[in-house]
């Protein structure tokens, strides 16, 4: 039985105990009232007896006094019957004292008979002698009833005293014992629990098991709920820590992106500015040349302006490509790598013309590759164009080779050359924007490898390279199962 049920039992027992006590007190008080009524009854009987005596010693009959005497005598049994309720009747039935009720009823009947004789005498229906006889008969019955009434009432009151009061005492005793047992159980449980919870953590490895063994009922439920709540709060705290860590790393990467963007804006505007200012000054020379009539020099300067503008256009196109690299494309189609190489060669015609470098491509694919064609085109073109640009003029047969093949859902692109190589001290800057290490050898924006890196990251692939004075090998791997 849990604590709340035990407490409920105590409440019920106490209510029963109080109800019985109150009931007993009322019943004992009622017994006293019945004695009082009987005493009053005897007083009025005595008055009636005196009136009868006066009539007998030949005084005239005062019917009004006699009537009021009889009515007064009749009132006590009426009061008595009104006082008795159903429960009293049941008890009197059980202990066989219900003759008290019969006595009351008979007393009322006797009083009614006496009153009707009085009326008959007043109407001269009976004579004085008959009237006196009936009065004496009533007086006798009243007296007898009064005598017989005391015994059942006394018996009823003593029954209540003998049975209900010991019952109240027994319930009270049981209640006291039960309450002390309950308070001892609760205080013991609390004491054990306090010891258990205040024990050192090293002795507390099996706290759940100990709780299971040493506690029961509501206390056990309370501790289990509290432990669960603490665990959840702790978990939330840990989660908050995790969130804080995520926010910290993301803020750091945002900061880095912001720095890169600022650097990019600076470098881009710087690189855009130089061909523009060059072209501006040359345009002024062209005007002066034309004014001086020197058309030959004017044409030369205009040609330089044209070259500067071409450079500018390339730079703007490269910057645009780089900016677009982070935006996902919706043009996902099966890629025809042979056609991709043909198109690339067309675009690189300016670089391949008069270039002693040979370009060899090998494409071996087990299944069609479906992905963002433009990204693949830009990756391959940039890496191959670098091989062609930075070839070694001192080597007899410069070459660039490109192998494209797949294995276990991984597409591999290997571009190798026997060019001048990337200086060792700059190898970790190859993918940075605007970094160029062979300015004299060829033109460029220094954005090609940064663009390649962005595309590969977008495709969840990887790029690495090995470079020395003998040449450079770029290896690109792209997992095809991770493509959208
Ligand atoms: N295969 C290579 N051999 C030797 N050097 C290389 C090779 N690839 C890249 N580099 C070096 O790395 C630098 C950066 O390459 P990246 O492609 O980013 O720029 P770029 O080719 O100079 O210009 P862009 O590609 O924008 O026209 C190059 O300028 C070059 O110095
Ligand atoms: Mg390049």
UniProtKB/TrEMBL annotation:
Residues 267-482 form the Histidine kinase domain. Coiled coil: none annotated. The keyword Transferase applies. Keywords: Kinase, Membrane, Phosphoprotein, Transferase, Transmembrane, Transmembrane helix, Two-component regulatory system. Its EC number is 2.7.13.3. The keyword Membrane applies. InterPro entries: HATPase_C_sf, HATPase_dom, His_kinase_dom, HisK_dim/P_dom, HisK_dim/P_sf, Sensor_HK_Regulatory, Sig_transdc_His_kin-like_C. GO terms for molecular function: phosphorelay sensor kinase activity. It catalyses: ATP + protein L-histidine = ADP + protein N-phospho-L-histidine. SUPFAM superfamilies: ATPase domain of HSP90 chaperone/DNA topoisomerase II/histidine kinase, Homodimeric domain of signal transducing histidine kinase. The chain crosses the membrane at residues 6-26, 159-182. This is histidine kinase. It comes from Marinomonas profundimaris. The lineage of its organism: Bacteria, Pseudomonadati, Pseudomonadota, Gammaproteobacteria, Oceanospirillales.
